[in-house]
Amino acid sequence: MPRPRWNATCHPDRPHFARGLCQQCYGKEYRRRNLQVVREKDNARYRRDKEKRKAYQVEYRIRRRQEDGEWLRRRNWQCRISAFRRRSGIVFSLDEYLQLIEAQGGRCPICGASFSDASVETVIDHDHEENFVRGILCRTCNAALGLLGDDLETVIRAAEYLRDAEELSR
Q1: Does some domain include residue 14?
Q2: What is the C-alpha to C-alpha distance for residues 112 and 104, in angstroms, rounded to an integer?
Q3: What ranges in 89-151 are assigned the alpha helix state H?
Q4: Mean pLDDT value of segment 94-107
């Protein structure tokens, strides 16, 4: 004879799971009552699978780019360009974007990172005062320029500082 089916007291439309609660509410209640144990298990699982998860993320990005191919890249660029237009007010088309990447050899002109690499995110670099596009950079190089205030003199002083520090270390 099958066991009678009860409804949960927390959500009468859901079936009973345990302690009068549906499965979702019971899970929340269990986590609240056993927070330290749950955190320890989560942390142990995170430490155990950290490298495997990172490898999977890289593999997933590469696989998605291969599967979706050019459509995904064009769609991603279109979204970035439209967001760039909204923020900066500069009119910039997808064709101009692709031409600029091709003119740069598909690489960041500062660090040389390949834009075809799944881990490199492209950014449209522009002059904030004159409102013109300078080029396409990787996110890291664009952030570095921004942190240096987009000031040529500051960039030159930073380069001299690094050169002097290298000479002192010899």
Answers
A1: no
A2: 10
A3: 94-103, 139-147
A4: 86
Which structural domain, as residue segments, surrounds residue 100?
70-169
φ, ψ for residue 134, nearest 5 deg: -90, -30
Q: What CATH code is carried by the domain that includes residue 112? A: 3.40.1800.10
Closest Cα to residue 115, out of 95, 81, 141?
141
Mean pLDDT of 94-117: 86
Choose among 155, 154, 146, 156: nearest CA to 123.
146
Q: Are 133 and 100 in contact (CB under 8 A)?
A: yes
Domain count, the chain: 1
With bands split at pLDDT 50, 70 and 90, how would you rate the model's confidence at 123?
confident
**34 vs 61 pLDDT, higher one:** 34
pTM: 0.50
| Residue 92, phi then psi, degrees to nearest 5 | -150, 125
pLDDT at 99: 87
